[in-house]
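Quick start: what a row looks like.
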Amino acid sequence: MANRPRTTADDWIRVGYELLGEGGPAAVRIDEIARRLNVSRAGFYHRFDNRRALLEAINETWLADGFDAYLSAGALESPEARLRGIGYFGLGNERLRRADQWLLVRGPREMDLGEHVDNVRGRAVTWLTPHLVELGFEPRDAERRAFVYYVAYLGLGAEIDARPTPVSDDELRSLIDDIVDLVIAPGRVSARP
């Protein structure tokens, strides 16, 4: 019997995460991951109780990627640079950007992810708001601007993924700069009932 390569839980998560970006949660199939890893599906059950446990692990990895992007941006000196960095590091990570699209843009329509999306939206706005307050905006206005940033971030991610050719790093930076410039422009972002 030929020796089969050994896999770890991280291997299954990595390939599952790639599949998520390619086709959403429905694409995360145990048989397909095993095929890509060149192993039998039996190895999956040595690492996870079921597919749901794998999806939860992928979700945790996705949240960690988003938090890593936020922390990388947090090392930047000014609040404006941090706002730009959040976009650069988040949308510049293809794996994170593609997962964002499935879990936050497409997924809610295809699956019951409303509570999940509300949680992520709340977390994103909570992370963004202090940077806007530091720029001098009143807390309520800063929170509204943070929401606008979040929506623009997701929209730009969808646009990037829909393009037939990749977006260059320079173009990505320019687009993020435009979003931040609009979000921090003088004036109040009005809340509509």
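That is the whole record. The chain has a mean pLDDT of 86. The helical segments are 9-23, 30-37, 51-74, 79-91, 94-110, 114-134, 139-162, 169-183.
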